[in-house]
């Protein structure tokens, strides 16, 4: 296996990216394939291959992965566990997913770093903003684990926060089982309206559960666009290449008076 240089950015591929730096948000469910829970290696390998393909376009790539395939803090809290304790358990579950992704990526020659908001020095580096940016500049794929490191915050909020901290151009949300944002849950209402574009404020006011309100507010206040699309073969590359796919959530620039 031939490895790329650890000190240089990957050589641009045939299709140039319209972004310089992105944060890709993956749900934990996207890693379990057809299983009811846990990790599916074939699915993880497929995701890893596409991530590497995206990086060859020259884009700097960071990841945040959820933990819904392993552990849901809210569900445990509802069953009587202390909410903060349940959330910390969920953060640790994101580390398991991050390590699985790291292994699949490095099997394919990529250089990666897992940066954890919780101190886990045996398996991950501590999250330091400048270190994360430096890794990206050197062409490494950075995987942010353990959410924000604080209970009561989701991995959606962690994705918004990390994207802003590393000055990402956009958040790409590759969703499991849906092709974008709908006015209602398409699983319950087959006639639900598909929404190709909307603003952050509209998503908040209409209660569209694409991201939690805290994450949407952070993105709105800092003019950070969100691209929501189905996690299917080739879709990440297509969005990075500038193709209109799924739903774009953004706030129009204010006109100067």
Structure explained in plain terms:
The chain has eight helices and eleven strands. Strands 4-3-5-2-1-6-10-11-9 form a nine-stranded mixed sheet, sandwiched between helices. Strands 7-8 form a two-stranded antiparallel ribbon. The protein has a single domain, classed as Carbamate kinase. Helix content is 34%, strand content 17%. The radius of gyration is 18 Å and the shape is globular. The protein has 257 residues and is α/β, with parallel strands linked by helices. Helix 1 (41-55) links the parallel strand 1 (21-26) and strand 2 (60-65).
What is the element layout, followed by pairings?
Elements: E1 21-26, H1 41-55, E2 60-65, H2 73-78, H3 83-107, E3 112-116, E4 125-126, H4 129-137, E5 141-145, H5 155-165, E6 170-175, E7 181-182, E8 194-195, E9 197-198, H6 200-205, H7 213-221, E10 226-230, H8 235-240, E11 247-249
Parallel strand pairs: 1-2, 1-6, 2-5, 3-4, 3-5, 6-10, 9-11
Antiparallel strand pairs: 7-8, 10-11
């Amino acid at each position: 296996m031939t490895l790329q240089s650890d000190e240089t950015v990957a050589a641009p591929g045939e299709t140039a990216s319209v972004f310089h730096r992105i944060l890709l948000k993956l749900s934990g469910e996207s890693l379990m394939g057809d299983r009811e829970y846990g990790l599916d290696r074939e699915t993880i390998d497929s995701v890893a291959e596409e991530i590497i393909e995206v990086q060859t376009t020259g884009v700097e790539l960071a990841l945040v992965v959820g933990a819904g395939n392993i552990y849901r803090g809210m569900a445990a809290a509802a069953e009587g566990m202390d909410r903060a304790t349940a959330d910390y358990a969920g953060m640790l579950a994101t580390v398991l997913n991050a390590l699985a992704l790291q292994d699949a990526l490095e099997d394919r020659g990529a250089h990666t770093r897992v940066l954890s908001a919780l101190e886990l020095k045996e398996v991950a580096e501590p999250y330091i903003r400048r270190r994360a940016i430096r890794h990206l500049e050197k062409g490494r794929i950075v995987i942010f684990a353990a959410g924000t490191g604080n209970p009561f915050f989701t991995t959606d909020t962690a994705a918004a926060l990390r994207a802003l901290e590393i000055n990402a151009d956009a958040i790409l949300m590759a969703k499991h089982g849906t092709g974008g944002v709908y006015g209602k849950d398409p699983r319950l209402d087959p006639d639900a309206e598909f929404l190709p574009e909307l603003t952050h404020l509209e998503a908040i006011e209409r209660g569209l559960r694409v991201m939690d309100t805290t994450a949407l507010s952070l993105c709105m206040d800092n003019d950070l666009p969100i691209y929501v699309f189905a996690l299917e073969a080739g879709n990440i590359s297509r969005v990075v290449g500038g193709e209109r796919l799924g739903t774009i959530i953004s706030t129009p620039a204010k006109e100067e008076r």
